[in-house]
Amino acid sequence: MPPQEDDAAENVRMIRDSTRAVVAADGDLSRIRAQRFQQSGFDPAIFATMAEMGWLTLRLPEQAAGLGLGMAEYCALTEELGAGLVPEPLIGAALAHRMTGADLAEAGICVAAWQDDANSLGWRKLRIDGGRITGTKRFIPDATGADSFAVATAGGVAIVAKDASGVRLDSEWTQDGCSLGTLDMTGAAPLAVHAADAVDDALDEATLATASYLFGLSGRVFAMTIDYLKTRRQFGQPIGSFQALQHRATDVKIQLELARASIASAAATLDAGAARAARSAAVSRAKCRANDTALLVARETIQMHGAIGFTDEYDAGLFVRKAMTLCNRFGSSAVHRRRFAALLKEAA
Amino acid sequence: MPPQEDDAAENVRMIRDSTRAVVAADGDLSRIRAQRFQQSGFDPAIFATMAEMGWLTLRLPEQAAGLGLGMAEYCALTEELGAGLVPEPLIGAALAHRMTGADLAEAGICVAAWQDDANSLGWRKLRIDGGRITGTKRFIPDATGADSFAVATAGGVAIVAKDASGVRLDSEWTQDGCSLGTLDMTGAAPLAVHAADAVDDALDEATLATASYLFGLSGRVFAMTIDYLKTRRQFGQPIGSFQALQHRATDVKIQLELARASIASAAATLDAGAARAARSAAVSRAKCRANDTALLVARETIQMHGAIGFTDEYDAGLFVRKAMTLCNRFGSSAVHRRRFAALLKEAA
Amino acid sequence: MTFAPSEDLRDMPDDEFRMLVRRFAEENYPKDMPRHSQRRLHWREVKPWYLALSRRGWLCPNWPREHGGMGLSAAKQLIMIEEFGRHGCARVNDIGIVMLGPLLIHHGSEQQKAHFLPKILSGEHIWAQGYSEPNAGSDLAAVRTEAVLDGDEWVINGQKTWATLGNDANWIFILARTDKTVKKQAGISFLLVPMDAPGVTVRPIENLELFDEFSEIFFDNVRIPKGNLVGEVNGGWTIAKALLGHERVFIGAPRLSANALAQLRALAERTGVAGDPAFEDRFVRLKLDLDDLAALFESYVEKLRRGETIGADVSILKIFQSELFQRISEEMLQVAGETAGLREPLDGDARLHAAGAYLMARPTTIFGGSSEIMRNVLAKAVLGLPN
Amino acid sequence: MTFAPSEDLRDMPDDEFRMLVRRFAEENYPKDMPRHSQRRLHWREVKPWYLALSRRGWLCPNWPREHGGMGLSAAKQLIMIEEFGRHGCARVNDIGIVMLGPLLIHHGSEQQKAHFLPKILSGEHIWAQGYSEPNAGSDLAAVRTEAVLDGDEWVINGQKTWATLGNDANWIFILARTDKTVKKQAGISFLLVPMDAPGVTVRPIENLELFDEFSEIFFDNVRIPKGNLVGEVNGGWTIAKALLGHERVFIGAPRLSANALAQLRALAERTGVAGDPAFEDRFVRLKLDLDDLAALFESYVEKLRRGETIGADVSILKIFQSELFQRISEEMLQVAGETAGLREPLDGDARLHAAGAYLMARPTTIFGGSSEIMRNVLAKAVLGLPN
Q1: How far apart are alpha carbons C96 and C60 in whole angstroms?
Q2: What would the pLDDT profile of C201-256 be if each residue is shown by its tens digit?
Q3: Contact C131/C142 with Cβ under 8 angstroms?
């Protein structure tokens, strides 16, 4: 094994271990459950812990005070967070840092506000005119708990404070107990403006990290379902002994393994510095697989659990609701199939 | 029960019984097997029997020497023929009669030649210029055994003799042991020309009859598969006791019942004289269901039989090959979904 | 509380009847009650509509006229379902109407009929069903709740679960084990229990729609009169299993899927996905499925009209309807894009609620006979496959 | 007939090796042999290519060098498969190469190795596999073909079936029952039988491609020397079950699906369906499946490169590959329109043959472990679900 590979594998192991700081090792989800629909939907203290571990800047190079980690490590991190359903907005905050390339510590909790419309990956609609921004950014996860936003515009990435004049934030609850914000700006003056060169790359990385979060939660709830199949008895035998359920469980496992391979190969493609089209295609492919797998897992989780799977007090539902909330974030499968097809055509 | 309903049910019963003349009651397929890839692919003597029973003109009114039967009866007939895999070109010959509204006895075995292109239901490309036709009709089932063709053109339905001057027929074998012809005409002089007013209706009816033929063969081979599941033993028990196969067999049964209902409701829509768009939509819907069901049945037939299902000497394969050959005749599911969608939009 | 016997509508032509029902709904469905609600309503919310139906004598279309029902054919019952659905009328607490009433009419004593049926008609008794237990879900005959005869009273101990709107009910019928020495189906009795009896505790369970649709109900030395037994001692399983044919048809009616498909269309228009050819192709597939389901459903209704008996194959309707509903709701999630996970409907329009539809579609393949159990039954009873 | 030991290519860089293989195929694959054939070729057709490989010493990349093989890593073996596939080289009669050779190398006596291995390398012995029987398909251990020791000879009676290209073979290895008193896996022995022995009869079976790919083979008092037993008496099951890890990887290689997808594209262009957005969306789904399969396949190859052992989960590759191949071939039927059922390829172009692809894809989910058996194994061995 070449030494670099050794290093990467070691980094991945270390970052997985480090998530023990925020993910209960025994799979306990009482904090997650209690957090739902409360205040901002996440815990600022835990977010602060994440920041202290350097995760917000893990994709920035060491010379920019980042951790200089690759996508393999980032995906390992979000996979663990997904398995633990950690609600703190790491991906949104890391995206803000990656888009700007800057240390945003002075902006408080700063999350990315990039999206212009539903069902599109577009982010270039707004402009900065005379140092001020007017317009709307939508679908901003966990906006209520943020102090500022990294607003992607055609003229650069602007850091806009939530309490700045001309800024108005509306927010709605999502099924997972977190929220989505809409940021209306009318002549808002940014705290700072950074070049927008990195936005496309940063979005691809956040998309892949989200795919890995989905994969993490899918794997965890599938394991819960398998446990249930082994223990729940009907007609005098464990229901996991019924062949129809065995075959369906196997079909889920197949999709999970495809998702694992798809995400790993996309991470490797990004880490190898492949061409832009190849990188985006790999990310779209991984997001499609992660989305579809998460929804398959969600469906089978409820069905295989039966009535108890449809109760809110049983933990499996927490995973289902997270899957519903995340499956279209950074693009639904339809959006990513379209992008993949366009890239395929380009390449032909 | 109103008296008309009684009559229709009685007609359907009678026509089903009458198919015993050409379908072996015990399901024996040795004639069907022996016929494959021989001469024209069908038996002219059996075709003559069908003609004698009046089936070729069953859709013509009694005053035009037809049987005056409805689509419920026609579908019952083709369903039985499908269950027996009868290869004689009843649908093509009945279509020729229905398109022209005429008694074509003098034209010998006359089958319809309507199709201009693959993946389209179009039939209006050719014209009759100065009483002569130049151009090509494609995908003519069982053309080699025919004496003449009812050629649908924008200028009328022309009866063209196979041995007429300027007529050239090419033919290829199909998987079911029958053939598809290509008719090239260069200044061919028709024996007669009839108005083309009935072509669209006639094509809808032939499409629905084909759907019912597919349904008949699907039901028959599914019954064979169920029998096999009950008798074939592996691991000390009948394979039909394995729950995964039971559930898949149930899924096939569900599609078969949908197909039955879809075809019956389409036949009723035609028999009730609904508006053209409603008639065509119902036919497209039934053809989609019959196509997809036949292919599902084909797939599961081979898989559930295992190795023996992949041998040519086992009868199940005859059904699979017929399904492959007929599933796109008078339009694939993609073609019919497109037509259905267009009609839906029109109606909205 | 009084209620009127219904006028006799059995011979009214179907079209005329439909118009009558439609007008009734328009004129009598309380203006301040929610229409087209995605979730079930509680008794406190739905009571005015229940009483309006009761006053007209229209509460129990399925009961014979001599017991205060309408005595309608399956076809006319379906018309009522369709027209009430069309107006968006809420479903009332109907377990007494649909389940217990017909069961008492067939198996109850004259005294039971005289006592209980009028109280259902008046809304005085709201019933819950106590069949499922934590360890008797799909395997319903595995009930452990026990009833022991002590003098003139049954003493009940145990736990029931998944009682729909159990926290609205003041009576519950249960299956209880009354003989542990015989095979499990043979030792079960059918009992009627007032929920205000000492020892009954109700614990509501929130479902994934964050709605307390179900309840757990605990029985701790609950004593009821001996006469609250329906049918024979240890004869409860047979009573409970006999479902009326036409109810097995209605449970597969295409209404839920049809509503969902209309919502999918509305949502696609709202999110700009409508017109995308790949979406439209998937939409047409769903529409074809819905239309074929409707055709199959009609063929069963036609059988009911002709008075034919309905076989075990009728569960095809329920399997396909519920799974189609789920597929449509899953397409809604896709189409919703970033709004898929919102807790509340888009623009406050109940039709534009992908997550709501997705969740609402989930239990349809679980309750009332899971798709797995129904496939087992079909495989054996209809296809004749071996055990 | 002579054959050369191969030059040692084990340390050649992979890229260089790939170019070498590519050039070899281009220069040595007989010009008059069919390329990209959808069906297997018979010995009489494929012999020149077999001998060309043999002469170069490249026939058995998987065998150790000391036995006349190339001793290549799994990665290099894959490169050969890929490059030969790329050129469209026909698959040779390889049961001796892939199955028997490695088995003898592990379990055969020195004498057996010395006698049989060279004859495979030279093409003198063409082997068939005699595992399946009419009543031992998925349940392979249910073999009934019997072998009884009579002096120095085994006397064999019974029937084998589904012997691939059995009518090309002059030797067959079989599983035969040698003890009926023990549980079924424990009474089976592994025997080598010359097909010209008196009492052996071969009956070819046409498959749905109308090709005599399989044979039934009958044994009627066939006598073979005692020394034709491999391993221990009654130890045959263990020998037969031990499949080499990397073969279980290769059987799930994305090649068949990749070829089929290219054919689907070509067919769609030919029939004018290409560009239809609904088709293109379905095509992209298949392409995504293929690419993810390739990624998963690569992850296993990577494990092989690192020398890791491959677990039971590797059968995921075969299940998904074969089912993807079938889905692609089913889409080809759709796209072919009215030409779907033609017996011969469109325009004489082998790539444009929907029916051929459809049929060719069928047995991939049946042979080599059916998808059902593999799902059973995965459920138990990988997911740990109970019996």
Answers
A1: 10
A2: 999 999 999 999 999 999 999 999 999 999 999 999 988 887 555 677 888 999 89
A3: no
Do the Cβ atoms of A253 and D385 come within 8 Å? no
Q: Which residue in chain B is spatially nearest to C280 when comparing CA positions?
A: B341
- Which chain A residues are within 8 Å of C139, Cβ to Cβ? 234-236
Q: Do both D169 and D78 map to the same domain? A: no
How many Å lie between the alpha carbon of A248 and the closest alpha carbon of chain D?
Answer: 9
A243 touches chain D (CB under 8 A): yes
Residues of C in contact with B246 (CB under 8 A): 375-376, 379-380, 383, 385
Helical spans, DSSP H, in chain C: 14-28, 43-56, 74-87, 95, 101-107, 110-122, 236-241, 245-250, 255-271, 277-305, 315-336, 354-361, 371-377
Count of B–D CB contacts within 8 Å? 122
Instruction: Report whether pLDDT(B2) > 50.
Output: no
Where does residue A165 rank: exposed (0-12), middle (13-18), buried (19+ CB within 10 A)?
Answer: exposed
Range of the domain at D148: 127-236
Q: For chain B, which residues lie within 8 Å of any Cβ of chain A, measuring from their own Cβ?
A: 242-244, 246-247
Q: Which of A115, A306, A320 sits opposite C138 (nearest CB)?
A: A306
Q: Decide if B289 touches C, using CB distance below 8 A.
A: yes
- From B278's Cα to the closest Cα of chain D, the distance in A is 24
3-state secondary structure of C1: coil
Query: What's the predicted TM-score (pTM) here?
Result: 0.95
At C36 the pLDDT is 86
**Distance in Å, alpha carbon of B39 to nearest chain C alpha carbon:** 40
Distance from the Cα of D362 to chain B's closest Cα (Å) equals: 7
Listed residues D219, D236, D253: the one ending a domain: D236
C280 touches chain D (CB under 8 A): yes
Q: Could you tell me if B234 lies within 8 Å of chain D, comparing CB atoms?
A: yes
Q: Return the residue in C343, C358, C377 with the most chain A beta carbons within 10 A, the one to mutate for interface testing.
A: C343
Same domain for C223 and C344: no
The verdict on residue C304 lying in a domain is: yes
Best CA proximity match to C247, nearest among C171, C173, C317, C190: C317
Q: Which residue of A has its CA nearest to D288?
A: A285
Residues of C in contact with D280 (CB under 8 A): 278
Q: Contact, A97 vs A60, CB < 8 A?
A: yes
SS3 assignment for chain D: CCCCCCCCCCCCCHHHHHHHHHHHHHHHCCCCCCCCCCCCCCHHHHHHHHHHHHHHCCCCCCCCHHHCCCCCCHHHHHHHHHHHHHHCCCCCCCHHHHHHHHHHHHHCCHHHHHHHHHHHHHCCCCEEEECCECCECCCHHHCCCEEEEECCEEEEEEEEEEEECHHHCCEEEEEEECCCCCCHHHHEEEEEEECCCCCEEEEEECECCCCCCEEEEEEEEEEEEHHHEECCCCEHHHHHHCCCHHHHHHCCCCHHHHHHHHHHHHHHHHHCCCCCHHHHHHHHHHHHHHHHHHHHHHHHHHHHHCCCCCCHHHHHHHHHHHHHHHHHHHHHHHHHHHHCCECCCHHHCCCCCHHHHHHHHHHHHCCCCCHHHHHHHHHHHHCCCCC
- Are D216 and D264 within one domain? no
B306 CB within 8 Å of a chain D CB: yes
Looking at the fold, whether D368 and D290 belong to one and the same domain comes out as yes
Residue B119: closest C-alpha in chain D: D337
**Residue D122 falls within a domain, yes or no?**
no
CATH superfamily of the B199-347 domain: Butyryl-CoA Dehydrogenase, subunit A, domain 3 (1.20.140.10)
Q: What does the pLDDT look like over D268-286, one tens digit per residue? A: 999 999 999 999 999 999 9
ipTM: 0.96
